[in-house]
Specification:
CATH architecture of the largest domain: Up-down Bundle
Order of helices and strands: EEEHEEEHEHHHEHHEEHEHEE
CATH superfamily of the largest domain: RecF/RecN/SMC, N-terminal domain
Distance between the termini: 28 Å
Radius of gyration: 22 Å
Strand content: 15-25%
Helix content: 40-55%
Bound molecules: adenosine-5'-triphosphate, magnesium ion
Strand order of the largest sheet: 2-1-4-5-6
Number of domains: 2
Shape: globular
Largest sheet: 5 strands, antiparallel
Structural class: alpha/beta
Length: 362
């Protein structure tokens, strides 16, 4: 169970020198456009592996005209306090993110941190999740998997590397058959593992969504599915491998592997009738919030993980259904929330004691 107690930014994004403490339950950051609300959520999200909620190039995190940034956090993990420092290091012209826990950057410490902190994230563009590209939906699902399996990104990265390597071999003047066979073998086992974990994750969400139906008086009945022509009728290792071999000529021309989990899509069926891409923007936001609530239920009740919610621009366009889902999350779980919006009044429906921060004025 992790909670961010306070944070300091030095030359991070638009902040020269910024310091604040946080409430252990509900933090509402408000202020004008461009004052730095999303930047604060981004800073918080950098506490674990990866590039943070914006998936930004690390160099853009450094305040313009400065050489480096420093983020200092005090985080409570299972009743113990840890000092976390995040900054960059330059190696061969490349910038790398460094995390230190109580001044220690050993692998064990980093693993401990990754295992202890889990984020659930809502970003404004997720309102259009079902109109966005399949890759955006895949990333959305992958982030949910990552929230309960902190080694999942390694699997995804390995798979992407293998695809890249296969393409490189196919494009080379003289193809090394042994090497190509080995890489294709690797693609099959990694690809099948990704299909399996995504399937598992969707099953978990569907079960949770179904269980929560009566409890929460949901407006919709939602079922999530993988859409993928390649694995339509189940696929085993041998078939997968055979298909890869058969598509070498095509893939060489096409410049990439034409099937696999990097081509899957995720759809959501509403009331057993139609896809949620037909819903209004606000209704699609409802579906995303329902899915996040379902994942939170799963993490807390089955995995004993208490995530931290980072909800950017959640305040705008919340109708009574969406407000209710948000309130349910806040009231039900003993977890920390960070919500942002332009105006304090957008959050007047929140009755729980909340800490408000006027970021324009800080
Ligand atoms: N590397 C950087 N150096 C200096 N300023 C930066 C850097 N990166 C971003 N900014 C500035 O940070 C500000 C954006 O902050 P942020 O996106 O957090 O705003 P916000 O409060 O979330 O606004 P909105 O309400 O519009 O979403 C912009 O003014 C932008 O120019
Ligand atoms: Mg913003």
């Amino acid at each position: 169970m992790a909670k961010i107690k306070n944070i300091e930014f030095y030359n991070f994004r638009n902040f020269k020198n910024f310091k604040t403490s946080f409430d252990e339950k509900l933090n509402i950051l408000f202020g004008d456009n461009g004052c730095g609300k999303t930047n604060i959520l981004e800073g918080i999200s950098l506490n674990v592996k990866g590039k943070g909620i914006r998936n930004s190039n690390i160099i853009n995190l450094i305040k313009k005209k400065e050489d480096n940034f420093l983020i200092k956090n005090n985080i409570e993990i299972q009743k113990n306090d840890f000092n976390i420092e995040i900054f960059t290091e330059q190696k061969n012209e490349k910038f790398k993110k460094v995390i230190k826990i109580n001044n220690d950057s050993s692998k064990d410490s980093l693993n401990f941190l990754n295992q202890s902190i889990s984020y659930l994230i809502f970003l404004p563009e997720m309102e259009r999740l079902f109109q966005a590209s399949p890759s955006y939906r895949r990333n959305f699902l992958d982030r949910l998997i990552f929230s309960s399996r902190n080694d999942y990104n390694k699997l995804i990265n390995k798979y992407k590397k293998s695809l890249f390597e296969r393409n490189r071999i196919l494009q080379s003047y003289k193809i090394d058959d042994d090497w190509l066979n080995r890489i294709e073998n690797e693609i099959c086992s990694l690809g099948l593992e990704i299909y399996k974990l995504r399937d598992l994750q969707l099953n978990i969400l569907n079960i949770e969504l179904n269980n929560m139906k009566n409890d929460h008086n949901f407006q919709f009945d939602v079922k999530l599915e993988i859409k993928d022509d390649f694995v339509n009728n189940e696929i085993n290792f041998e078939e997968y491998l055979l298909n890869l071999r058969k598509s070498r000529v095509y893939d060489k021309q096409f410049g990439g592997t034409k099937f696999g989990p990097h081509k899957s899509d995720i759809i959501s069926i509403v009331n057993n009738e139609f896809e949620s891409s037909l819903l209004s923007t606000g209704q699609q936001k409802t579906i995303v919030l329902m899915v996040l609530l379902a994942q939170c239920n799963y993490l807390v009740n089955h995995k004993k993980i208490n995530p931290i919610f980072l909800f950017d621009e959640i305040g705008s366009h919340l109708d009574k259904h969406n407000r209710q889902i948000l309130l349910d999350m806040i009231n039900r779980f003993e977890i920390q929330f960070f919500l942002t919006g332009n105006d304090k009044n957008l959050f007047s429906f929140v009755s729980t004691n909340a800490q408000f921060y006027n970021i324009t004025k800080l």
